[in-house]
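User: Predict the full complex structure for these chains.
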Amino acid sequence: MGQSVQPILVVGSVALDTVHTPTESAMDVLGGGASYFCLAGAMFAPIQLVAVVGDDFPEANRRMLEARGVDLTGLEARPGKTFRWSAKYWGIRLEQRETLDTQLNVFADFHPVLPPAFRKTKMVFLSNIQPDLQLEVLDQVENPEFVACDTIKLWLDTAKPGLERVFRRVDCVIINDEEAVQFTGQRFLPAAAHVILSYGPRVVIIKRGENGSLLFTPDRIFLAPAHPLETVRDPTGAGDAFAGGLLGSLARSGHDGEQVLRRGMLYGSVLGSLAVEDFSVRRIVQATDDDVESRLSTLVDMISLDGSRAR
Amino acid sequence: MGQSVQPILVVGSVALDTVHTPTESAMDVLGGGASYFCLAGAMFAPIQLVAVVGDDFPEANRRMLEARGVDLTGLEARPGKTFRWSAKYWGIRLEQRETLDTQLNVFADFHPVLPPAFRKTKMVFLSNIQPDLQLEVLDQVENPEFVACDTIKLWLDTAKPGLERVFRRVDCVIINDEEAVQFTGQRFLPAAAHVILSYGPRVVIIKRGENGSLLFTPDRIFLAPAHPLETVRDPTGAGDAFAGGLLGSLARSGHDGEQVLRRGMLYGSVLGSLAVEDFSVRRIVQATDDDVESRLSTLVDMISLDGSRAR
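Assistant: Here is the predicted structure of the two-chain assembly.
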């Protein structure tokens, strides 16, 4: 990672997760959308984290994030407990999820305050927190050049007007297929994407899990395959890791132009595939640049019309 | 379509379908897997149909097939009623289906007999009929060069040993994702494809409906996007039309080599997308070569890493 790569500012949740699958469990492991984004994105670019944790947040997690190039100046530590989330997964590929418990704890009163050095950052990722908090962050960034946001069904159900305000102020909306259909009332994804594009973003990305992701710009569609899975140990965080890989690669290569966006989608798929292979962020932090490039080559070959292997 | 394109022999069902959606119905329209395959494939190559109908089979259907270059020498007409199938679809994109009635009628005692001229045909499609009937056809073909088969869940449940015999004798297995998982007991599609490849075919194609199709050869994977849908009027026959587009394009371009297979997958997606836009085979028979090539260009662009539009 060169010194010249521009940093990415991310706001979102840092949590301690407890995850159960039919065969395994992990207790109080590092979770939260911002954590996955940070560690995926940090493979490509310096990351500036804006989040809150309690006084129970393990020092080891903090050190691990810093060791990966994540700037924790904006990680507020408050008296009380860190955001806790617990869920169980089941189904043939662990595609079914039930949230067992959510304790907002210190996150309940979170109002993000950007350290001065973060306010000039040009690339921003608003992970799937409450839309009003996403807007609070955006209001503090002086002159952003590329802002992407994600969301979850909860905000479609409870904060749609806020979400619409966010969509009007970002360059890129990342959303999953069911949410895109629900938000727009359109049955088909191209029509749904075009409704979201009409709010103003120049890019809409619709995630479909193991069926890959679609990149919509006003007159083109790109299909990024999901990396072929051989195992799923914990599906948590795949979407946030996808966003980290995507924005990280854009920070490194520039966010203008269809070509870097398309290649960025593939980096997103790679980091998403790593996320699910172990609990928490374990597989992501173990990945080498060679691991990433090897998976990228597989994806490039999966969409090549060339008869010879494109490696 | 040049005279030099080699013919494709197809065996399968020709039926009269009654289809209900929440807003529309169609009664006694041309259906059956072989019908969809014939009319999709006939856009690329001469088709030889082996099937059975009753004495109630409308002459108009026969004329329409012949007008499209389908050789009906092998279409047996028997006293009695044509195979009838009835179903209803529902769900946001009509993805839910319930079969209401199946009357095998003359199909119940069908034993395909190939006209002498068909026995030398090099390219063969065994659509999703009973595996023993697929084998009866294969036994009558003298020296096939490329044989593809499809199947349905019913045969996994009731005729798995026969299906395994079929898989051992074909070059290409076409199957949907749930069937591939069920047949192999493998949760992940690459592992499932490799189990099927171990029976002997050199190509395994796993269909995922609106999520596209995957082409597996021993050491590569290709992802063919589904053509972006703007409407679904009747999902019946999409898989058979996919096979018709795929094999048709292979008949025209040669079935050797990864490049023609990959492009063939895209032609399959194009014909599958046409099939669902109207009841029965209506949209397929209305399609022009320009319609097909235009949709193909969309698909090529959807998987292009080039920043400029690849048209």
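Chain B touches chain A at residues 92-93, 181, 187-191, 208, 211-212, 220-223, 225, 228-231, 257-260, 262-263, 266, 298, 300-309 (CB under 8 Å).
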